Each structure stands twice: as C-alpha cells, then as structure tokens.
C-alpha cells in the first residue's frame, strides 16, 4: 500500500564467531505507515539497538526483506545505503551528535548540502528557517551547540533530522542525556510533530515515554510482541507539561 513507509519481512540478524552464534533478531515483521508513532522497548540485550541500526541502514540483516516506500534496500551497497539514508531517514541520537565547530544554522543545513539533488542557498535557507521555527530555536541560529542546554541541543538535533523531510524519523533514547523536565519537553515536542504528520519510530528504556506511542512494540530475545496503546491516555501523561519554552527556564 502507498501509505506504508517502512516494511520489514522476516528479518533476522546473527552475529557469529568461531565459538558461537548469537541471534540478535529472529523473524521480525513490521510495517510502519505514514503518520504512525511506534515505540520499541525491551530489556538490555533484547535487540532494540540492532533493529534500529537496520532500520537506519547502519547495518544489514542476515536475511529477510527491508522495504522503504516499496523499495527493497536490504542488499544495497554502502554508497547506495548512504544515499537512501540521507534522503529517506532522519535520526535523533541520545548524544545529540551536533558539530560544535558549526553554528546551529549550519548543523541543521548540513544534511541538505550532501544531497544528490543540489539545493539553492535560498531553498536551504527556507528549510532551515522552517525547522528552526518549528522547534522554537530561531533566536539561537548563530549560537554554537556548546552554548546551548542539553534540551536545546536535542531540539536542534530534531530540526536537523527533519530538515530533509524524510520518510521516517528514527529516535534513539532521546531523553537519555536530559534531566526529567527537559526530557518531558522533548517528548512533548516529538508528540506534537507526530500529530502534525511526522512518522516516528523510537527506542526508549523509559516505559512512560514508550506509552506515548500509538503502537508499542516489545522485544524479547530478538522476537517482537506487539501491543496497542491508548493515544489519549498516553498523551495525558505529559499534557500538563505546557509550552516548549519551559526548557529556557531550565537552562537559565
């Protein structure tokens, strides 16, 4: 179907040494449609990070099919994977991964400068301005990441991930380096982006945040168990947080 952004079919991942074989993923089937908000939770060592790496084309499955908007990408070369990743996948990392030598503006613009299709400077300016406004960081465009709080850096990282208008946003423990207040604000921002149409797939160890997703996936020993969240109940857990600008109070 046209609205399926991501589809995994019988994905396995095995790591082998001379002494043993480790099966990190066992027969994973997953479809993520446009506008979905999916969380992946589970104990340490269950395969969450391996699954996210495969979804992000940072690793390849041992077997199975991986389709992005109907195109099989499981067997692509490193160069092909890098090109698809730049065009179709946005990443938000636990450690932010911003470049401190660059301004906030240039960090967000960076993915656009590596696109196969060259964008004009005016097109880049317009896209960066749009996402700076979305994450309410326009007033920090010329600052360096080291001049920002952790919550502000994560907001910049979200803008960088979405500036290329990817098919899906992959989010890896987005609150792992944040205090609880900034973590709540970043999670509310992600929820708002999803309500506006962004397709999200998130790995988190925090069950409270995992419950915000409309589809909750639980991994155990490389196998997937699927449960459905109640969106209105999950959202109510953080609805009292208020506007994004509370992060400024924390940073002060």
TrEMBL record:
PANTHER family: ABC TRANSPORTER ATP-BINDING PROTEIN YTRE, IMPORT ATP-BINDING PROTEIN. It comes from the Bacteria. This is ABC transporter ATP-binding protein. GO terms for cellular component: membrane protein complex; plasma membrane. SMART domains: AAA. GO terms for biological process: response to antibiotic. CDD domains: ABC_MJ0796_LolCDE_FtsE (cd03255). InterPro entries: AAA+_ATPase, ABC_transporter-like_ATP-bd, ABC_transporter-like_CS, ABC_transpr_LolD-like, MacB-like_ATP-bd, P-loop_NTPase. Keywords: Antibiotic resistance, ATP-binding, Cell membrane, Membrane, Nucleotide-binding, Transmembrane, Transmembrane helix, Transport. It comes from Massilia forsythiae.
């Amino acid at each position: 179907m046209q609205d399926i952004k991501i589809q995994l079919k019988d994905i396995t991942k095995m790591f082998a040494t001379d002494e043993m074989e480790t099966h990190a993923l066992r027969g994973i089937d997953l479809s993520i449609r446009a506008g979905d908000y999916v969380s992946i939770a589970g104990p340490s060592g269950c395969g969450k990070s391996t699954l996210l790496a495969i979804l992000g084309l940072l690793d390849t499955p041992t077997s199975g099919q991986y389709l992005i908007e109907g195109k099989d990408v499981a067997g692509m070369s490193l160069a092909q994977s890098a090109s698809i990743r730049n065009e179709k996948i946005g990443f938000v990392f636990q450690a932010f991964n911003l470049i401190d030598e660059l301004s906030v503006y240039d960090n967000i613009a960076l993915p656009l400068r590596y696109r196969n299709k060259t964008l004009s400077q005016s097109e880049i300016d317009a896209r960066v301005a749009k996402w700076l406004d979305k994450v309410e960081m326009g007033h920090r465009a010329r600052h360096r990441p080291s001049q920002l709080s952790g919550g502000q850096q994560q907001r910049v990282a979200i803008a960088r991930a979405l500036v290329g208008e990817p098919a899906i946003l992959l989010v890896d423990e987005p609150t792992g380096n944040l205090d609880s207040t900034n973590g709540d604000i970043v999670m509310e921002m992600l929820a708002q982006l999803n309500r506006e149409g962004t397709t999200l797939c998130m790995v988190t160890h925090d069950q409270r945040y995992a419950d915000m997703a409309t589809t909750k996936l639980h991994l155990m020993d490389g196998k997937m168990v699927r449960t459905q969240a109640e969106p209105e109940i999950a959202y109510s857990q953080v609805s009292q947080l208020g506007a994004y600008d509370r992060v400024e109070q924390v940073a002060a």
